[in-house]
Design brief:
The chain is mainly α. The protein contains 13 helices and two strands; from the N terminus they run H-H-H-H-H-E-H-H-H-H-H-E-H-H-H.
Length: 372
């Protein structure tokens, strides 16, 4: 059970990073990217190929992130001056092009056989008891940071509700916030307690889990600072009406390009963790379905809200875990039918969400970009 929760935590963390990159591009800048997996592919393959050929792991990671950002630059330079739908079409095409290159260029990526036995972080790390306690202390700091961010988010939701309601009082509002607080603390405590147990009985996956959570905390904190800065407010203005931003003297193209590159770099980080989690990567790991999944997370959690991206990743992987465990017991479908049914249910949930709460769980309806 401990090992499976570590597995889930790693996937939630790396997909939360992936969703944060897309949320910056679409939720804040209004850029429609239907090929987000392309940045993950570039980051993963670049880091793996370089480290497999003797390049130090940290340098391989930095180059992988830089190449993912460079891909955003190349896509942005050719499409951002055109209509929005051109960006959507080009990103789909680029993601499929990269996957086909990985599949067919055997001399570089070993094609469908995949790349195996590449260097992994902390793979040979064998901590003593004191070092394990240091790792647990780092996890404790991350848990405190998560609890602090949860408190800030709940307080912000309360204040926004009070501003909207004025002097009127609705008793369901504080009750819903209390429920969200209890659920959030439950998730944090579950991850923390399970993580402590895993780190005491240290293995590679436990170390990777800590690295993923640390990277997620750093990226989330940095993005929160950025989107609350004047830079972030300009991105929101561009998302709402870029003609107004132009009238105010803002270089709309340059801001969009920055958002596309930074979001791509974050997706590249997620791709590197994805490769480290899989320990063997194949072109089939980077199909279009991966982009569909991350769009589901962003829409579900609420576009334009960094906590929404993380919440969407948690809900998505909780659903994935529950259906993988319970569907076979029902005996309704064979193994291939179970996968199709799970995707169908996700689509149904999204349709119902678009009707009931199109802005997502944490999103603001007045900031909704769909249908404008």
């Amino acid at each position: 059970m401990v090992g499976y929760l570590v597995f889930l935590t790693i996937y939630v963390g790396l997909y939360a990073l992936f969703a944060l990159g897309l949320n910056l591009q679409w939720g804040y800048a209004g850029l429609i990217n239907f090929g987000h997996v392309a940045f993950m592919t570039v980051g993963a393959y670049t880091a793996v190929l370089l480290s497999s050929n003797g390049v130090p792991l940290i340098i391989a990671v930095i180059v992988g992130i830089a190449i993912a950002a460079l891909l955003g630059l190349l896509i942005g330079m050719s499409t951002l001056r055109l209509r929005e739908d051109y960006l959507a079409i080009v990103t789909i095409g680029v993601s499929e092009l990269l996957r086909l290159i990985a599949l067919n260029e055997d001399w570089l990526t070993k094609g469908s056989f995949g790349i195996q036995r590449y260097p992994l972080p902390l793979d040979r790390f064998d901590p003593n008891l004191f070092q394990k306690y240091i790792l647990i202390a780092i996890l404790t700091v991350l848990a405190i940071f998560a609890a602090w961010q949860l408190w800030k988010g709940l307080r912000s939701q309360w204040r926004e509700g009070q501003e909207i309601q004025g002097k009127s009082y609705q008793p369901t509002k504080p009750i819903s916030l209390i429920i969200w607080g209890i659920v959030g603390m439950g998730v944090i405590l579950t991850v923390y307690i399970n993580g402590c147990v895993a780190l005491l009985d240290y293995n590679y996956k436990a170390g990777l889990m800590l690295l993923v959570l640390l990277a997620l905390a750093i990226v989330y904190w940095g993005l929160e600072l950025l989107v609350q800065s004047p830079w972030g407010r300009v991105l929101k203005a561009i998302r709402e009406d870029e003609e107004i931003a132009k009238a105010l003297g803002k270089n709309v193209f340059w801001y969009k390009l920055q958002a596309l590159m930074l979001g791509g770099a974050i997706a590249g980080i997620a791709g590197i963790f994805y490769a480290w989690q899989l320990t063997t990567i194949y072109p089939s790991n980077f199909e279009t379905l991966v982009t569909f999944n991350v769009w589901t997370m962003v829409v579900l959690g609420g576009a334009g809200k960094n906590p929404g991206a993380i919440l969407g990743a948690i809900i998505f992987w909780a659903y994935d875990a529950l259906t993988r465990f319970y569907l076979p017991k029902l005996g309704w479908f064979d193994s291939s039918g179970q996968g199709a049914f799970r995707v169908m249910v996700i689509g149904l949930i999204l349709m119902l969400l678009m009707i009931w709460r199109p802005q997502g769980i944490l999103g603001k309806k007045e900031e909704l970009t769909l249908g404008r």
